[in-house]
Design goal:
By secondary structure, the chain is of the alpha/beta class. Helix content is 36%, strand content 16%. The protein contains 15 helices and twelve strands. The protein has a six-stranded parallel β-sheet with strand order 2-1-3-4-5-6. It has a six-stranded parallel β-sheet with strand order 9-8-7-10-11-12, with helices on both faces. Strand 7, helix 8 and strand 8 form a beta-alpha-beta unit. The radius of gyration is 21 Å and the shape is globular. The relative contact order is 0.11.
Length: 355
């Protein structure tokens, strides 16, 4: 069996690709499957995509992506399944998806892990927001053989258009990547951590007053790992640029991981990825009760669910004062990921997409 993976970005670059399907490539090879990844964006375009300027190079890169997609159509006879992550092209109507599914009659597995039918516009993407064609998600769901969704909220949306929509959670490779556990009793400053991209830095605003209050009583560091430095009025703030090569070691620097969200339609589509990463490393996760967070985190068992500033404060206060509690919750957090959200645990579910 041969599978073509169509995705926006090059191999190993985007978290959604890495943790939704790229980490299964070796297992597919071992199981006798042949696969190919066809990204829209090249490595050279990816290197400048989110940097200011480089307009001509970016436009050239997008045009080259459309040319690669056109040429790819002539190779589709080689494949039994076509797995499309998010979209075949980042702008415009779903022309390639229509050709693949309706004209060439290929079995399309359509995969997404965000509420991508919504226009989640930011300063970074506002220029192209008007031509992204968000409503194409509905049509692609209709044409797909199966729809692979990151959580129940996304699955329920997709089932309006395709009854064969399934939950395929974002997973963690606990054997080869997130394969270490934080020592909660080790010396050094206590670190409350958060990781994410520039587009989610906005969610930190709600916990700034809580951290500002606690830093007057406790010695701790609030460490933010991102591709962009935050601007927060906190003396405990320490910014650390995200680097793939040191990702796990950097995350192991946290004692506790935070995942605040706003309760809006976009956030409901979130697949608790930050919490999954923290928990896999034996770090209790403190999360807002939004999206998939309440499925992953059990309050007081492997982390805390915090709906109000008072709950954020009390949960952090408990963990700042008690290393034994951090260790206990961290152990349970790791076990939750291994049993329910690891690559090994989800492998049969992932493989069933191609049956």
């Amino acid at each position: 069996m041969q599978i073509l993976f169509i995705a926006p970005y090059p191999h190993g670059k985007a978290p959604s690709q890495r943790f939704r399907f790229e980490q299964y490539f070796d297992l597919l090879t071992q199981a006798g499957y042949k696969w190919k990844l066809a990204p829209f964006i090249s490595d050279s375009t990816w290197a400048i995509l989110y940097k200011p300027g480089h307009t001509v190079a970016k436009v050239s890169g997008i045009v080259a992506g459309f040319i690669r997609r056109f040429l790819l159509l002539f190779t589709l006879s080689n494949y039994d399944y076509v797995f499309i992550h998010r979209e075949a092209s980042p702008i415009g109507p779903p022309i390639f998806e229509w050709i693949i599914a309706k004209l060439l009659r290929k079995k399309v597995i359509y995969d997404f892990d965000d509420a991508i039918w919504l226009a989640n516009t930011s300063e970074t993407n506002k220029i192209v927001a008007g031509i992204k064609w968000h409503h194409k998600v509905d049509a692609i769901c209709k044409w797909a053989y199966k729809v692979s969704c990151g959580n129940a909220y996304l699955r329920n949306y997709a089932r309006q258009f395709n009854t064969n929509a399934l939950i395929n959670p974002t997973t963690i490779d606990t054997l080869n990547l997130h394969n270490q556990v934080r020592n909660q009793r080790a010396g050094g400053p206590l670190v409350i951590g958060w990781t994410g991209t520039h587009s989610t830095l906005q969610y930190l605003q709600q916990i700034v007053p809580v951290l500002a209050k606690l830093e007057k009583e406790f010695e701790f560091e609030f460490r933010v790992i991102s591709n962009q430095a935050p601007n927060l009025p906190l003396k405990s703030l320490m910014y650390q640029p995200w680097r793939k090569e040191s990702e796990i070691q950097d995350l192991l620097g946290f004692h506790v991981g935070l995942m605040p969200l706003e309760d809006d339609l976009w956030a409901k589509g979130k697949c608790a990825f930050k919490a999954l990463q923290y928990m896999a490393l034996g770090e209790p996760a403190l999360v807002s009760p939004v999206g998939m967070n309440t499925e992953v985190v059990q309050n007081g068992v492997n982390g805390y669910i915090c709906a109000t500033p008072e709950e954020w404060e009390q949960s952090l206060r408990n963990l700042l004062q008690n290393p034994e509690l951090r260790e206990e919750l961290g152990t349970q957090a790791r076990q939750t990921i291994v049993e329910r959200y690891s690559v090994v645990a989800n492998w049969p579910n992932f493989l069933a997409l191609f049956n």
